[in-house]
């Protein structure tokens, strides 16, 4: 059967993708950040999955305010990079896994989660930047990707508890899929940042690092934190961090298994006007 073998957590700052696309990764402003990504890329080269379930938020490129689903699952065989106003990023199209998408949709909806099912949609930097961070600039992404959109743009947003429970439901779904697949769940967004208003440029390093610690050690406690604290402490866009809880919920310790193994952690300030975080947890429950 399929199994969740790891979770990956990553900021999806658009400037990171731009730096790669324009060949600026060795410039002084970016070199320390990309050096920090090297251990993650080395790990990924040895642990490339068959499928990534990639949790991110659309930035008004696919969903406008006319329709804002709380959770939306990509069902397609392929997803093109979105044109975010300056042309699509020069990256490969994302190849989906329709059979696993269909199984996830059935299982998670029957598990009492209401999903919007999306058969045709572009994917913006929320999806493509994490792929670039982990895989570099290949001619084709080395695994299938299933996009899972979470609304953290238009209030009301889902609670951390709801996101953690969605991760649990995803794990249950994966484990009932008959094909022998190595699956990773990636949670993206954040860390602390605010893009507008009097607090524009806010970065809260102590809160960010405490969030990562608690995500690893006490995910149930972190899931109990409400959206007001995220916005107060991490900025209006810091609410994106609830998406990391989807990936954390898919780990085996929250299904009665053993605690995951932390294999990599990165915290960097700043990239653009944003704090950047990265974390990799291997699921010890999935080991042979």
Features:
10 strands; Protocatechuate 4,5-dioxygenase, Chain B; 34% helix; alpha/beta; 9 helices
Structural class by sheet pairing and helices? alpha/beta
Kindly report the name of the CATH homologous superfamily.
LigB-like
What number of structural domains do the residues give?
A: 1
> Low-confidence runs (pLDDT<50, min 5 residues)?
none
Q: What strand order characterises the main sheet? A: 6-3-7-2-8-1-10-9
CATH fold assignment:
Protocatechuate 4,5-dioxygenase, Chain B
Q: What is the CATH class name?
A: Alpha Beta
Write the H/E string, N to C. EHHEEEEHEHEHEHHHHEE
- Percentage of helical residues? 25-40%
Evaluate the radius of gyration: 17 Å
Principal-axis shape equals globular
Number of strands: 10
CATH architecture: 3-Layer(aba) Sandwich
Major pleated sheet: 8 strands, mixed
In quaternary terms, these chains amount to: single chain
Separate helix tally:
9
Q: Which band does the percent of strand residues land in?
A: 15-25%
Mean pLDDT: 96
Q: How far apart are the termini?
A: 13 Å
Q: Mind sketching the topology for me?
A:
Blueprint: E1 3-10, H1 14-21, H2 31-46, E2 51-56, E3 71-74, E4 78-79, E5 94-95, H3 98-110, E6 116-118, H4 125-135, E7 144-150, H5 160-174, E8 182-188, H6 205-217, H7 219-223, H8 227-234, H9 242-249, E9 261-271, E10 274-282
Parallel strand pairs: 1-8, 2-7, 2-8, 3-6
Antiparallel strand pairs: 1-10, 3-7, 4-5, 9-10
